[in-house]
Protein 1
Amino acid sequence: MTDLASRDASVVAPNAAPNLVRLHPFGLDGAPTLLISLTTGLALIGLWFLASWFRLVQPLFLPSPEEVFVQFLAIIDDGYAGATLWEHVSASLFRIFTAAFLAASLGIPLGLAMGLNRWVKGVFDTPIEFYWPLPPLAYLPLMIIWLGIGELSKIVLLTLAMFAPICLSAQAGVRSLPIERVNAALSLGATRWQLFLDIVLPSALPEILTGLRIGIGVGWSTLVAAELIAATRGIGFMVMSASHFLATDVVFVGIGVIAVWAFAFSYGMRLLERWLVPWKGKS
């Protein structure tokens, strides 16, 4: 009897330590992946070393990492195809940044307007949806016929390639806005301008930044492909010129430069997202 009473008292004791339930993690759950990524990269470079060391692939098709690095230093010092490495890179960066500025300046306001007004959506939705699935290189010959092989045709091509994802993402950001927020702001006496600045734009900003990130990726790949066809300077032109002479090590240098800048663009957009929309994915 006394044992039963003491057991009941221990169960209902107010100072008893609570039993904590540990939830099972879902997905990444904030776990870092940097070490895994670095290990994977080092493993791939190691396989490249082994393949070149044991001559599993002919050097014409797969030069060794040492050869690529030596060629990279040579291009920095002497240049390639009539221009230095920085001149090739700067030509490509000028095209992509100019086109990105134009695409964002036109696509974000139009996308927001399409999300807010049915007439604007009805007018512009059809032409955007018509050309958006087309590969940009499909209408590159048309740009060359209309605008020539100068810088204008490439910038217009890149602007069109980046415009659609930016515009459609801005529209999706507005359409995903919960109507309860709008009604709550209107009930508190917010004007239409206050509603747009304080409710619509912050809610659409994550989607807009996602559209910018996608657009820059599409534009970068389109730029390199366009430079393969009609350019005298640029990273894509350098790669194509090297391929004509079977300079595989120069091709690898160009591919590496393209990959580094693509990673820089992606990482920069991630930092911008963390700064502007720190609440993304935490609701």
Protein 2
Amino acid sequence: MSTLTEARPDTSPARSTVTARPRPFRLVRHSLALAKRSLIKTARTPEALIDVTLQPALFLVIFVYIFGGAVAGSTHDYLQFLLPGILAQTIATGAIAIGVNLNTDIAKGIFDRFRSLPVPRSAPLVGAVLGDVVRYVVVTVSTLAIGYLLGFRIDSDPLRALAGCLLAVLFALCLSWLPVLVSMKVRTPGAVQGVMFALIMPLSFASNVFVSADTLPGWMQAFVDVNPMTHLVAAMRGLFLGTPLGTHVWWTLAWCAGFVAVFMPLALRAYRKRV
């Protein structure tokens, strides 16, 4: 008599190990897919890039031609000094937009829809941060292009100039976790913008962005010397203009690592509690 046996799936540990995808790989894959969503959204609303294209142009024209003669004695010399600072300031303030957008999306219920998808819980947040990198590339290219039209010239080699651009983009990408955290803590997009401007403006003006740190009062220099914007601007000036770099690049990289190590876990924790 023949015996019929029911075929059963192989559930051995070895089989599961081969077919199951590691969780970090799933997080990266889904985060990149959601980052693509952010890029498509930006492409369909180009007016959202006004703050990273028009703002640096206005700042350069206003500060160079109004204050250049008084500060540096020459508009050209001040343009060479100012442009790396304007790039650092604009790329830092440009990171505020991700906090505003995330807060708006949460209010609209978009993240509730993401929860129904078979994706890791933190993938929408990580994807939004990765997708925002296009804003930082746009502000870097537009600022250098506008500066070139006004007379700015890079005095170092192309590789060092590219390194300066990449350093600025990396700084903004790491700093963006701070507005992400703020967006999870406050209730309205306007509150996100207000809180972030209150945090970014002191970093921008109490630094070497507009004037040399040596001209500032002694009590302020203690803050300026440890200000992450100061290190970023000094590093970009060294990479763009060939001035001494010192340890500014390493300090900037250390600040980037610190932003991610502190604000990213806090933002993910606040995100899980809120949505």
